[in-house]
Amino acid sequence: MLDPYKLVLTTVPISSYILVRITSNPRFGLERCFHSNKSDTMNQFLPNKFELEHVFFGSSGVNVLSLEGNELYFRWEPSFQDYEPFREVRIEPLPEEWSLFWLALDEIGFWEWKNLYQPPEDVIVDGHIFNLDIAFNGRELVTSCWCNAPDHIEEFYQALQDLTDLDFQHPGGVD
C-alpha cells in the first residue's frame, strides 16, 4: 500500500510562484507551478546572462546555449563535416519551467560552485571542456570544467534537459 500523498507548498524566493509537489515517495512525484499573482511577467524569470559551452574532444564538436532576448538559442557546431550536421534550435521556456530550473539550481548548491574544476597536475587527460556563465536575480556563476566537474553536475544537466528538452551531455543535444 502506498503511503498517503503529501502536499508540500514551497514559495520560490525569486517569484510569486508557488511550487506544489505531490508525492508518495520523495524521489518521485508530480510537480506543478501556479501563479499566485497574475501580473507576473516572463522577464522576472529570465536570466541576465546565460552562456553555456560544452566542447567534445575526439571526433565531435561543441554544444553552445545562449540567451537571445526571451529565447535560449542552441547551436551544435561539429568539428568535422562527416559528424552530426550543424544544428540550431530556439527554445522559449515557460515561466513555470524557468521557475523549476532556478529551484533545481538552488537545491544542488549551484551558486556555490568553484570557478575552476580541473584534474590534478600529475594526471594526463584529454577530455571534455565545460564553460558556463549564468547570472540571475543578483547572483552570477562563471565556471570552467576540464576533465573534472563539481558535485551534482548530473542534476544540473537534468535540470537543463527539463528546461530545454536537449541532452546537453551528448553531441548535437540528442542521445
Q: How much helical structure, as a percent, in the residues? A: 10-25%
Shape: globular
The biggest beta sheet reads: 7 strands, mixed
Low-confidence runs (pLDDT<50, min 5 residues)? 1-39
The first-level CATH class of the largest domain is given as: Alpha Beta
The CATH superfamily of the largest domain appears as Mago nashi
CATH topology of the largest domain: Mago nashi protein
Query: How would you write the strand order of the largest sheet?
Result: 7-6-5-4-9-10-8
- Averaged pLDDT: 77
N-to-C span: 36 Å
Beta-strand percent range: 35-45%
Describe the structure.
By secondary structure, the chain is mainly beta. The chain has 2 domains: 6-35, no CATH class; 42-173, Mago nashi (Mago nashi protein, 2-Layer Sandwich). It has helices spanning 95-107, 153-164; strands at 6-11, 17-25, 28-35, 49-55, 61-68, 71-78, 87-91, 116-117, 129-136, 139-146. The strands form 2 sheets. Strands 7-6-5-4-9-10-8 form a 7-stranded mixed beta sheet, with no helix packed on it. Strands 1-2-3 form a 3-stranded antiparallel beta sheet, with helices on one face. Strand 2 and strand 3 form a beta hairpin.
Summarize the structure.
With 175 residues, this protein is mainly beta. Helix content is 14%, strand content 39%. The chain has two domains: 6-35, no CATH class; 42-173, Mago nashi protein, CATH 3.30.1560.
